Amino acid sequence: MNLFLTEEQRMIQEMARDFAEKELKPRAAEVDSTSRLSLSVLKAMADLGMMGMNIPSEYGGSQSGVVSYSLAMTEIGKGCPSTAVTMAVTNMVAEVIAAFGSEEQRTQHIPRICRGEYPSGAFALTESTAGSDPSAMKSEAKRWGDEYVLKGSKTFITSGDFAGIFVVWAKTDKDTGARGISAFLVEQGTTGFKIGRNEEKMGQRGSPTNEIAIEDCRLPRNALLGQEGEGFKIAMMALDGGRIGIGSLAVGIGLAAIDYATHYAKSRIQFGKPISSFQAIQGMIADSFTELEASRLLVLRAAYLKEKGVRFTREASMGKLMASETANRVCYRALQILGGYGYIREYPLERYARDCRVTTLYEGTSEIQRLVIAREMLGVDNV
Ligand SMILES: Cc1cc2nc3c(=O)[nH]c(=O)nc-3n(C[C@H](O)[C@H](O)[C@H](O)COP(=O)(O)OP(=O)(O)OC[C@H]3O[C@@H](n4cnc5c(N)ncnc54)[C@H](O)[C@@H]3O)c2cc1C
Q: Which domain covers residue 98, as residue numbers?
């Protein structure tokens, strides 16, 4: 793995950093307090090429590669985690359609994602009784003449409120477990596909998390993504890539928190000295930057392998596990450096800690990442 960034990768990183500093960071507290992110900001990100970063230019993507995507995601995550997770899911959906879609599906949907005509994409896998174990899903799709008829429900769907296109999983054969799952493309506003409650959340509050009720939702046969029964494989492959995005995002939140705390430590005077002169504070700063750098390298390794077309399942899970657990630890340390002020809303530390919490939960909990890693290391199916 080349540890030096190319000129293009550095430029993309700087572009995303600049955008995050100017457009995201100043509004992040408001996004949190109003639980609303700006759709015009998402459009601006699409115009900068950030909604189809690993998509060929023929479909409107910026074709910047997975390493650049990871670098950009970390910068956007520093600025506004709610916006970053929207970018993560949108890129994931564009990539799923690129990898498994028919030519008609690709040309119909991917350019609209990349150009920001769809504010975002959405990935509708989880159900109330099927979280870590999607094979337990109850949603069904029955073939009826030239159509599929979907019924069921989905839970915790990021961007449900405003996504233009959804990848939705349902069983076309309910007796064969994971092998009976298929994936479908559903456009926002399709009859019978009803976006429900936006959950009240601890963090990433600007990113809507919706329930979806699917009642007699009729889709044309060509809404099927890939082949019947291929849905579970599609979901797992998408999640492998998605974990690079979430790991990168987590690193961004951790860096934002410890950067802030480091500046604070230099100016906060106690016992007649800046608190940065105390070894205990220095230790927290040193450990935090070191652990975040290690996490970033692990995530970038997964990104590099994906870019080179090498299998990266284990590395993506390692990166996501390490980055999300580390970033949570770092956010708590950074909050500690601010003392009581870390707990006060006027300062961003309590928000960083809340925004970071979900990174060990979505796109596979830390326990599920460990299962994936152990399965890869042991060479057995231990789930
Ligand atoms: C804010 C947010 C956004 C989300 N966005 C999306 C989205 O866009 N699309 C989508 O499809 N889903 C989304 N999710 C769902 C998310 O992926 C699930 O919440 C997650 O996979 C865990 O499922 P669960 O919540 O049902 O927990 P459960 O699966 O019920 O797990 C509960 C606990 O048991 C542990 N556990 C479960 N199985 C095992 C096992 N085999 N071994 C050891 N421990 C185990 C888990 O690690 C966890 O600690 C989102 C969730 C949140 C909170």
A: 7-119
